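Usage example:
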Amino acid sequence: MNESHAGTTAYEVIRVLLVDDHPVVRAGLRLLLTAARDLDIIGEAETGAEAIALARTRNPDVVLCDLRLGDGVDGVGVAAALSGRGAPAVLILTTYDHDRDIVRAVEAGAAGYLLKDAAPQAIIDAIRAAATGETVLSADQTERVVATMRTAPRRALSEREVDVLTKAGAGLSNREIAKALLVSEATVKTHLAHINDKLGTTSRTAAFAVARDLGWL
Amino acid sequence: MNESHAGTTAYEVIRVLLVDDHPVVRAGLRLLLTAARDLDIIGEAETGAEAIALARTRNPDVVLCDLRLGDGVDGVGVAAALSGRGAPAVLILTTYDHDRDIVRAVEAGAAGYLLKDAAPQAIIDAIRAAATGETVLSADQTERVVATMRTAPRRALSEREVDVLTKAGAGLSNREIAKALLVSEATVKTHLAHINDKLGTTSRTAAFAVARDLGWL
DNA sequence: CTACGAATCATCCGAAGGGATGATCCGCGC
DNA sequence: GCGCGGATCATCCCTTCGGATGATTCGTAG
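Running the assembly step on the lines above writes:
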């Protein structure tokens, strides 16, 4: 009877899957979570792909997942991949609390968002809360999300726009960016125009600086 | 005799001071380092100031210090504060390997620079190497540092050039910069040309990015 | 005294950037 | 199925940028 069905645990034990590309961080979480007897680490993953695969075979209740994972699939991607169904709750763990990331994580179906500098107990509490289906955002973060929605940078840049702006920031001309991204120069210019619209800037240089400061690059 | 003099340990044990503002990371390091019997964690600090104080009272052989620490004093600052004397070796630990940071850390007297995604054994080896006075940089990092030294910072920007580039980075046009600095547009263009010469760039955007990365703005 | 770098300004010109518009194609959600 | 946003491309036109050159003034280091 300890084979759990999706969404139900056999006991009161919360099955946790750790996902972080840093061995150090995984070790730290492991150490911290052993302090809570109701938490059981049933697996660890280094990459997003690995995390998704493990989550599907081992039925964790909660996936504790770093936002940045090195490979293509980041924490938000993991949350998105595992959303719906009788799926595990995904708690995003990260170092920085940029507004965009919180919003993206929640939109992707994450159960919550935690900073790595949180107190150990806060992390444990968050896992317990996530296991019961609660959404975990600190008061600070909630305020910030709301504030962001209201005031801040219109909306986030699309993937492609980030690509273009990154190249532009590296000093490439529109033509060079076009070659690098295998599109026409016209497309690059269009993207840059949209970027300037979204960021409220009037030049690539300003856009780059703003996006940098917002942590969007 | 286990009161060590600065720079000499009573036994073969390496005294390590952990500095990181994230409890999770400290826990992880603690767990990983216990695997090495010759490493003794003689203290932990959360902030740069705390780290410097502890380092001065507890004579660690190696200070393992996160680059970003939340408060004013970052890892580089800690390295700088503890340099000279019979001081401990400072190993900078970080998530990202930006050139500027490596260079700054080494210039500040750090014994080395490690990425957090390094293998546990690599971290342990690095601490041992640092304890013997070696400088610890991975092959990749060494290459990059050398490349940076060789190609990048010809010579520093003049004050005026920094003024201009800062304005340019804010997205001002040459004319606007000229107005702001009370000079003619021609002067601004001359400055920008000199800046591009010095930084080896061909556009204001690239120059801004490079100068930013070098910490010159 | 002289040489040199920094700061200032100027002119010329081709290359690039940015604004305005419009169009097609595709995927997703209501 | 229709609308909407993202990604793609195009054309027109004006502004700005960047390269090349040359000049003056002013400190300061040699």
